[in-house]
Amino acid sequence: MTKRRGNVVSTRAVRKGAVALAALALAGTLAACGSSPPPATTTTTTTTTIPKAPASLGALLPLYPFSTASQVDSWVASQGTSSASWHLSATATALKFAAWLGFAEISQTFPSLSVLSASSAHVAVGFYVPGTTTMVRSAVVHLVRWGTGSRAPWEVVGTDDTTFSLSTPAYGSTTASPVAVGGRISGVDENIKVRVRSLSSSADIGLSCCSAAGGVASPWSRSVSFTASSGTVLTVIAETGGHVATVERFTVTGLRAR
């Protein structure tokens, strides 16, 4: 009987243990059903919005190096985050402009004679007289950023009048060929050549040479013919030199072909 009681007690204990385990398992299941799932892992994608260049420069004309806003947008998009380009430097763009005009000797910029801000620049370009430290300022190139932000490229829109000006026709005028151009000049034994260029051509589209000039703020004038489609932006260049360099000074204006 003692052994039998022992068996009975043992069986009851096992049953109690089984019931307890089952209760714990049920409680765990109920707890699991009522708990919140672990937070989902999300991936955030950052999209960089590139500002679009204005459709136009307002009253200013794009002379170099871009001719349309779509060209500017394409260039900005192709650069990514790169800043290693002369388009992002006003001084470098001014020198590239002088080279595009064919002025190989004009290869210096003069910071002390230049005025630069975040969106506009007036860059003095020129050269040193060979074998000396004498500085010759050939022109002051006016540039603006076409677009917004630090990735907007610089665009040449004209030159500032100094001792050599090109004021006729008025900047931004629409003109047919031939066109009478003129301005004022201070100097001695000057010889003025006039050329016409556009970004749509790799060479001059007009040339008129040459007019003798000199004195102090003396008027000069010249007629030049050109060939261009209606609406084409024209860069009209007046240049003089021959004393210490082939081209010593120049001035430009922007017109549109009729």
Task: Describe this protein with a few key phrases.
5-stranded antiparallel β-sheet, alpha+beta, 3 helices, 10 strands, 5-stranded mixed β-sheet, disordered N terminus, 2 domains, Immunoglobulin-like
Helix content: 10-25%
Which structural category fits the helices and strands? alpha+beta
Largest sheet: 5 strands, antiparallel
**How far is it from the N-terminal to the C-terminal residue, by CA?**
127 Å
Strand content: 25-35%
Average pLDDT metric: 86
The number of distinct structural domains comes to 2
Number of strands: 10
**Stretches where pLDDT falls below 50 for ≥5 residues?**
1-34
Short description:
By secondary structure, the chain is an alpha+beta fold. It has 3 helices and 10 strands, in the order αααββββββββββ. Strands 1, 2, 3, 4 and 5 form a 5-stranded antiparallel sheet that branches. Strands 6-10-9-7-8 form a 5-stranded mixed sheet, with no helix packed on it.
